[in-house]
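With this grant's support, we have settled on a layout for protein records. One resulting record is reproduced below.
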Amino acid sequence: MIIKTIDICKNFGEKVALDHLSLDIPEGKIFGLLGPNGAGKTTLIRIINRITIPNSGQVLFKDKPITQDDVMKIGYLPEERGLYRKMKVGDQALYLARLKGMSRTDAMLALKEWFQRFEIESWWNKKVEELSKGMAQKVQFITTVVHRPSLMILDEPFSGFDPVNAELIRQEILRLKNEGATIILSTHNMESVEELCDSIALVNNSKLVITGATDQIRRSYGDSCVELVYVAETALQPVPGVFEVEQDNLEAGVHTALLRLEGSGNEALTGIIGQGVSVRSFRELIPRMNDIFIRLVTGRAAE
């Protein structure tokens, strides 16, 4: 594990921000840190970055108590962006790279590569105040990752981007992961969670609600449903292995059925084919992360 948090507690006066929170964040993966506003996510991120000190508990970096030297190996993109508006883009990017321990020569070479990759070479001498929100966010993303940190913490990295630039950032996140980086992704965009995150943790009301591999969590909240589209003159008869069937006609001779299974899908499919129907599709229905998030946070199913 690159990060372990052990029994982290943090209070702000009478407000409990984190309540005995323990997490394991695997190395070389994308880890989704999820939760509603005010759940404690940002407090946890600030504790990992040693910006805030917990009241109790411990953060380990590669199995040792985290130090300020370890923080230098972290790239942090906060949700509240912060660039000096009067500075030129290039000067600011160089300054922030130097703060992370890069030499001027290495920083210039790395920034040149990133500016070329993002096709923003012409921005070097612009002032930050001349940039749109999305343009400034591109610059801040670069300054977060330019020193090749082993751990990157990205808080709502897609906020403010149009679909084209959001896709650009997604591809860069995947590329960085493939090069060995660990990424903590804090976002409310559940589609991005499904697409990018290997595992997740959901925090609500300062407590850990659930953690685990994304696919396993999605499957665990399913209800053994499959969707069947088939061609037949009549509707399905009772099928072994299926305890409930809801059927509709799509068109003449074409039917769709929602099957709730007792056992394996193979057993049900064998029983269906045995009726002489022609199966067009047979797929497991796995709940979306958005629906699971709503269910766990509010206690009710998504509408």
